[in-house]
Design a protein that fits this description.
By secondary structure, this protein is an alpha/beta fold. It has a domain of about 290 residues: L-arginine/glycine Amidinotransferase, Chain A. Helices cover about 35% and strands about 15% of the residues. It has a three-stranded mixed sheet with strand order 2-1-15, sandwiched between helices. Strands 3-4-5 form a three-stranded mixed sheet, covered by helices on one side. The relative contact order is 0.18.
Length: about 450
């Protein structure tokens, strides 16, 4: 049976803004307080989805969240009508209002960790929503994320959904941004690669000194247990604490993998040789031939990688067996990175082509091509069981671009977040979107 890796990209929400909320994310902090363009951001993301669909890749879309999150503000003591809650938060606690308006759910690499049916004990595709408890503005996402994923992958015969892990520091979980799967074929058993920044209970593992390590070993192990993964099908590796302190807040900022290939920076991991040997041995037992491409620090520094988001790229397998790398425009703007990519693709190796996309609106807030997509490996039967309205087609692309043009502002500043009209605009847009994507009632304003 034929199997596919389907990329479900996050649709940028109407409140896309530069709040500078993500400590440890260099781009997010560098562009704090600048005016954003939500309409341009959403259209840039949709253009990437359309392009990949036209290249023959399976492509889906994942809906944004309701913002501002008035319910979250009420839990923090703001009372009155929705408009009064927003007004009082703006007056007394503007940082909380900014956090409640974050459109960070656009980066659906953090939405969940996904294990395909070929790896799991019960033969179903498993989803665990990420608790994202390292940052308040992201920690409020997982209830809606779970409902949206449940509406997309509803058939319990094929799909299993798990609640987010306990929202405490010991089980900090950042989803697929720290998870990669290696396999010979998407429909065959593979090896799931969990990367963590620290251990909550074992002091033998070093921790970064400047920025927080968001993913714990214990969270990764818990997800593997929930998904029913075998020990032979899992490899755990620790991020290099020194690169976390240089702005590598997730593994997908310093490494990307697909199929049998890992593309990574020389300084990405601790005990790299041991990790590579384990991946090779375990994938070999699954009939695969693990291969790695190491980018030397002498050619691309960690700073270059962080500023260009070279590794926050999409590594895609083509029909002829070669690989395509999807990178942001910022890679072309970095001389050392661009020289490396030209050398890489001209060498006749595994990665044969690089395609560049303009994702400036997302990039300025700290998210590149890989942040915008959640990968789900599905066989033909499972793909047929997915809500068909969320699979990208030319008509859906046309409908969504018209929807964005109708509902999104072309400029948003921090002061605009205090406008109660923005909440009404967002709810009107999302109510229409749930009809387009046939999601049913997934947002708090639709349920309460």
């Amino acid at each position: 049976m034929k199997s596919y890796e389907v990329n479900f990209d996050g649709l940028v929400g109407p409140t896309h803004n530069y709040g500078g909320l993500s400590y440890g994310n260099v781009a997010s902090q560098s562009n704090s307080q600048q005016s954003s363009n939500p309409r341009e951001a959403a259209l840039q993301g949709l253009a990437k989805m359309k392009a990949l669909m036209e290249m023959g890749f399976q492509q889906g879309v994942l809906a944004p969240q309701e913002r501002p999150d008035v319910a979250a503000l009420r839990r923090l003591g703001f009372a009155g009508s929705d408009a009064q809650v927003i007004e009082r938060a703006a007056k007394d606690a503007m940082p909380l209002l900014v956090a409640s308006c974050s459109a960070s759910s656009m980066w659906v690499a953090n939405a969940a960790t996904v294990s395909p049916s070929a790896d799991t004990r019960d033969g179903r595709v498993h989803f665990t929503a990420a608790n994202l408890n390292c940052k308040y503005h992201r920690s409020i996402e997982h209830p809606t994320t779970s409902r949206v994923l449940g509406a997309m992958f509803a058939d319990q015969k094929h799909f299993a959904h798990h609640a987010a892990l306990p929202a405490v520091a010991q089980f900090g979980d950042e989803g697929a941004a720290n998870h990669t799967r290696f396999c010979r074929d998407y429909g065959q058993a593979g090896v799931e690669f969990f990367v963590f920044g620290r251990s909550a209970f074992d002091t033998r593992y070093p921790a970064p000194q400047k920025y927080p390590a968001r993913q714990t070993l214990e969270a990764s192990q818990a997800v593997a247990r929930l998904h029913g993964l075998s020990d032979d099908g899992v490899v755990y590796a620790q991020q290099n604490p020194s690169v976390i302190d240089q702005g590598v807040f997730h593994n997908d900022v310093i490494a990307v993998g697909n199929g049998e290939v890992l593309f990574y920076h020389e300084d990405a991991f601790l005990e790299t040789d041991k990790m590579l040997a384990e991946l090779q041995a375990k994938l070999g037992k699954c009939g695969g031939n693990f291969q790695s491409i190491c980018v030397p620090r002498s050619q691309v520094t960690v700073e270059d990688a962080v500023r260009s988001y070279l590794f926050n790229s999409q590594l895609l397998s083509r029909v002829d067996g070669s690989m395509l790398l999807i990178v942001p425009e910022e890679c072309r703007g970095n001389e050392r990175v661009w020289q490396y990519l030209q050398s890489l693709t001209s060498s006749g190796g595994l990665i044969r082509e690089v395609k560049v996309f303009d994702l400036k609106q997302s990039m300025q807030n700290g998210g590149g091509p890989a942040c915008l997509r959640l990968r789900v490996a599905l066989n033909q039967t499972e793909l047929a069981a997915v809500n068909p309205a969320v699979i990208m087609t030319a008509p859906l692309y046309g409908t969504l671009t018209q929807w964005v043009d109708k509902h999104y502002r072309d400029r948003l500043s921090e002061n605009d977040l205090a406008d109660p009209q923005l909440l009404l605009e967002c709810r009107t847009a999302l109510d229409e979107l749930t009809q387009i994507l046939k999601l049913g009632a997934v947002y708090p304003f639709q349920i309460n």
